[in-house]
Amino acid sequence: WQKQLQNNEKADRTNNNMMFVKVMTDEQLETLRKQIAVYATLCDQLVEMHRTLSTHHDLTGVRVGNIYCDSLMTSAGQKITSRQRWTPTPLQLQILERIFDQGNGTPSKEKIKEITAELSHHGQISETNVYNWFQNRRARSKRKLQNNVPPTTIESEVDAEVDSKDKKTRPEELIGSQQQQHSTIIMTNASATNRPEKLCFQNPELQYLNNQHPNKNNKSDPIFTSDGTLR
Amino acid sequence: WQKQLQNNEKADRTNNNMMFVKVMTDEQLETLRKQIAVYATLCDQLVEMHRTLSTHHDLTGVRVGNIYCDSLMTSAGQKITSRQRWTPTPLQLQILERIFDQGNGTPSKEKIKEITAELSHHGQISETNVYNWFQNRRARSKRKLQNNVPPTTIESEVDAEVDSKDKKTRPEELIGSQQQQHSTIIMTNASATNRPEKLCFQNPELQYLNNQHPNKNNKSDPIFTSDGTLR
DNA sequence: TCTTTATGAATGAAAG
DNA sequence: CTTTCATTCATAAAGA
């Protein structure tokens, strides 16, 4: 593998404009990654279901499950390529920070363009980056306040809950059975932990697609091994 | 592995300060396609099997859901308690994307109901969710276009240059937020020559899956769409 | 290296 | 519909 990589790499470098074949864009690659991850997860889910169903009957499901786990499961949700992300240069950061501090909480599309133009003199950047940055900046500073200023300890929780529930003004013309449990309090740590949560399934099928839990085996990437199988 | 990739990336970036470096041979691409197709087929089969098993063993979806949920909790731990918003199942997502791609941009209340009904077979969902999904999907795809269409006006810089160059490599619409760093994926021919059929299931009962032509039904031909989304 | 943290990006929901 | 918010995911950077 390594060797091949190196070779290809060299070829890549030397024949930059030449014939080797196929170029995938980041989007395509990312899409591919997602797609594979989705399938892997799907298979995982299904296998799990089979396992559950078959436990009392025969070995089929179990075996399938095991095999699957060995070959595919560890790869679920992993990345094929690392998605690269923008990182502001110190200078950009400084400028952004300054603008942010100026208070005008609403960067608005116009502003964004300006800012982006300005910042692009100091490094690669796009409007989306700026937009996201402000978005995140605002959200996080807000949360910080929230977390730091919960001096209103005890009864605030209840009040907050009621308040937020009242906020739910949307006329529910269409509502199924949903987890629209806007039990959303002001997510302080305290409230988050005492809350008797509703444990029942909402997405019975694939809840843990979002698993980020430190799986010790997460070494593997869904990459194609030399024999054409996934590992 | 990962590291190797990183190295490649760095090398690419520094040595020839150019971008787009994802290179695949035709065979590799083909292999990839096959592999994904196999995944799709497998999933289809598994779903079918699951349905059969479910009905046969007289298990309701709910029960399955509960059991599954339980096993999930034990394995994945804390997760489930904190979820408060709907997360589409991969399957649901696929379906949604497909519908969206079909162009009928106006999901009208009628449609929504239908779709919801359909999707509810694959997981907990409500009409509101579907409604929101389409809302967001449309808005965001629009924004993407908006971000991409405006031909680079500000060429004041190296980065801008790079950017436009970058865009040239993208035959299709691109995702708004991706604009910068690229990483390298190179697949060797060696890895591309094998049979995807070896993928995972060796169980006799499932063996027949492997003999299927991946493209048997169009649903099993997962290729990325032009806008980098799944369908 | 491996783990943890900070933060860019994605996205469901809701407001405007 | 468009914009914004809240939450979560993924990863670059920092720490051990």
Tell me the layout of helices and strands.
2 copies of one chain form a homodimer.
Chain A: H1 2-14, E1 22-23, H2 26-54, H3 60-71, H4 90-101, H5 109-119, H6 127-148, H7 154-166, H8 189-194
Chain A binds a DNA duplex (16 and 16 nucleotides) through helix 6.
Domain Homeobox (chains A, B): 79-144
DNA-binding region (chains A, B): 81-145
Subcellular location (chains A, B): Nucleus
H/E topology pattern of chain A? HEHHHHHHH
Q: What is the approximate shape of chain A?
A: elongated
Number of helices of chain A: 8
- In total, the number of strands of chain A is 1
Estimate the helix proportion of chain A, in percent: 40-55%
Distance between the termini of chain A: 14 Å
Largest Cβ-defined interface: A-B, 102 and 126 residues
Ranges of chain A where pLDDT stays below 50 over 5 or more residues in a row are 1-17, 56-81, 156-231
